[in-house]
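Newbie here. two chains, one complex. Structure please?
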Amino acid sequence: MKCEWVKENVVLYVYNELPDDARYELEQHLARCSDCTAELKTTRKFHAVLSELPVEEPSPNLLAASRMRLGETLENVKPGGFWRRLVFDPGAWLRQVQFAPALAAALVILGFAGGIGTSYKLMSNSGNLESLVPRATPAPTESSITAIRSISQNPGSNTVSIQYDTVSTQQAQGSLNDQRIQQLLLFAARNNYNSGVRMDSVDLLTQQPNADHVREALIYALRYDSNPGVRLKALDGLGPYVKNDSRVRDALLEALMDDSNLGVRAEALRLLGPVRGDSSVRAVLVNLAEHDENAYIKLQARSVLAQLPEFD
Amino acid sequence: MPADAWSLTFAVGKDSPQGARRDEEASGTQDFPSRGLMAGHSLGRIDDTLLVREAQRGNRAAFEELVRQYDQAVLRLAVHLTGSEHEAQDIYQDAFLKAYKSVGNFRFECSFYTWIYRIVTNLCLDHLRKKQVRKEEAPVATDPDGEAYDVLEQVADGRAEANPERDLMRRELARRISRALEKLTPRERMVFELKHYHGLKLRTVGEVLHTTEETAKNTLFRANQKLRSALADMR
């Protein structure tokens, strides 16, 4: 390892380019290692060989001829420095040291003026907090939203107002089809602490459950929302898809079997009516008709089963 | 010519309280002709600054004084690198003409020494690249030793002793070395040239070639290795 390092650095040693400590170390090693000493010798010899192509001082004739030729050419050329000074170069002006104090003063004055102007504007607006809230907020990211405060739909239009908190409360307004609005609604349906807000958002989402992620949010609300009202709303939104979407059907069956709220279960049962022919639905219905604790559900399950053709 | 420069520097010097000092320096220039060597560039640094300022103001004599400080080293490098006095003269001419035209842009961010070396090495690199392309395009048309001939003749002249056999051997050796040098890439050649033959510090080489000392070091290693394998039988 040591020898390797020496062999790598012996060239620098010969060229006197090693730092003092490295040179000392190398010399110490050379005193002990004959291999490396031989390498140094070889390198030195090789360098001596290369110096057989000597660097000669240019002959006085050549030097004089070159100087003369250059002198003649310079007669006809204007130096860059002279012509440049005739052209106004703002960069060069700025570089001039004598302008530095004036420039510094100008910057300080500009800074003060800017500061005063800004604080004046803020103070004059402080009574009217709303004007400080930017109307056109950038699309919020989920991580920046702490909570949704309220959701309301303007009557007779599909414009929705959503108040949500980021670091400060902000307000977003737009059509239901607006991606920003949808993003906020989806966030509200899943994450909000206020069940009223969740209800509103699920309600609005049911207006366009075609989108895949909206349907997913509704299924999520149906499965996990703690508020039966919210679950019912989600159920209503999902109803029309029970025939075509097996995920919706599964979610409804789950709600039918396990939901703690009787109303939700009854609604799920009603919605599952049109697909009672499905084998998994039928199995659940049979099970409910025989074993369910609730008499109403039992009865309903039976009546739905009774509508099925005998042979099926 | 030197008298011209001297009197002009003096004339400028009268405008400022530093005039006397400049005057002394200017006369000092004449006392030490060895200033033509770049080795003494650190001593010439203060003069350089004043001369460059003057040259930037359009003082041609000041520029010519600068030329005289550096041109011998420039020519030495160019002759050794190109192997031809004629081509070296072209590089010399182009380099100082370029310097003259752009001296107004010089901002003292590096030394004038580094700046002028940068111009020269760029021209030399261009020259080496062109030469390489020519060689690749027409490998038979040009004689590979032809370029090196002038210089090698000089080698023999300078050392012509009583022993013609030894002289012949030395000439052959030099020819082989310059052939091996031609096989390096232009950049490797440049780093090796500046370090080995002109004794610049690797830090300066890095500055001149717009790269780091570390890169210059690595390039030097590579060049050394290539040369060693090309000249393996001569060690």
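Moderator note: The mean pLDDT of chain B is 76. Chain B touches chain A through 54 residues (CB under 8 Å). Thread marked as resolved.
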